Amino acid sequence: MKAQILIVEDDADLIELLEYRLQKEGYETLGFLSTKNVKRALAEEHVDLILMDRSLPDIEGSEFIAMMREKGLDTPVIFLSAKDSKYQVEEGFIRGADDYMTKPFEMSELLLRIEAVLRRTKKSIHSNLVTYRDIQLDLSSRTIHIGAQEIELTKLEFDLLHTLIAHQGSVLKRDFLLKNVWGRGGSFQGRTVNVAINRLKEKIDPDKSKNYIKTIRGIGYTLF
Amino acid sequence: MKAQILIVEDDADLIELLEYRLQKEGYETLGFLSTKNVKRALAEEHVDLILMDRSLPDIEGSEFIAMMREKGLDTPVIFLSAKDSKYQVEEGFIRGADDYMTKPFEMSELLLRIEAVLRRTKKSIHSNLVTYRDIQLDLSSRTIHIGAQEIELTKLEFDLLHTLIAHQGSVLKRDFLLKNVWGRGGSFQGRTVNVAINRLKEKIDPDKSKNYIKTIRGIGYTLF
DNA sequence: CTCGCTTGTAACCATTATGTAACCAAATCT
DNA sequence: AGATTTGGTTACATAATGGTTACAAGCGAG
User: CA of A133: how far to CAs of A163, A182, B40, in Å?
Assistant: First the structure.
């Protein structure tokens, strides 16, 4: 899948140059002369990266980013800023951007930086998912989603749910769960597993309508 | 990797001579009789250096450079000029050329100057940014900005924040942090990571309103 | 060498998670 | 149906874990 790059730059010739080169590299491009229609484009299209002149006629680049971030958009941005002594001093004020290039720049270096930023932001979606019905566990971020809702589980509850899902289809005996989730053999007596399962049930299905976990009397628990 | 040199010169014989000699030295060359197609060539190919006659039939050399720089290209340029006057040499430098040769010139001297310019322009002065929400780390200058504010972090705190951001989206266990930030395996006990995280939290979010760092009880820490 | 900053450690506090027990409800058996 | 067995529910004590603070050793800049 090609990455789509949005360009905001008030120099039409530079847009042309950038679009030509980026398309040649296999990117899709969207060129804009001002930020006027950019917001709409961001809402309508999926944009992987924004290349933006820092000093646009209508708005300051970092201001635009601030607005964008406020709307909840975290599209990465690379600034293109003029090598103006005034801006050199204020380099620290380039904020919210993922990278920046000072004009004049080498086209090949820009391409490398684009690649780097895309690689970096793509990687953050390196999740490790386990799903059962509408439950979704992300093992790397240890987050749990049920439908669109995110819920919180303790370490024990998370591990318990994880092994239940991992062995879905088979009935898990208490000994098995104690060994796999708690780590110790039979050092626990009584209702330990029982209570844990119930606390888990309470969290993933408070109104008892989904019936994720089924009790097999005399044996243990299972998911279907 | 061979450097590519673009030549713009209205004397076809001189182009041929230059190309022959430069190729013999191991450079790749692109010859042009006018600036007409040079812009396109600069977009398509990586060019390390431009050799340019200062008085071309279609455009003045320094004017062309000005245009190029405005487009954001910083490819170095060496002027070749038939006129010999100190005044003009200085003017040439002021207008953005990296070096200047007056015809007739010694081929060996040109080669030396080409080498010098290429060596000089290899170094990159661009920064290396890592961002998370409104936090921005500049890895080359090791400065940290949160929004408009610049804050100071110790080496340890900087490295810690850096690895947290680099692995944003996954929970980082204490062992992992000890290995990656501290460098040693398990040579630390107790609250070492803990205290470091809290010192970092205190600096990047003194009034505890931003909640950048989330504690995952029993596992470690994460950004989200 | 000294001063100040950094940072590991320990002691202590606060919070959360969880094992256990007591009790209740439901299923199973005779 | 009543007894018995098994699981569910609740409350609570405490263990586990992380946060906070203070302090001293280490380290580097001057």
Answer: 15, 25, 55
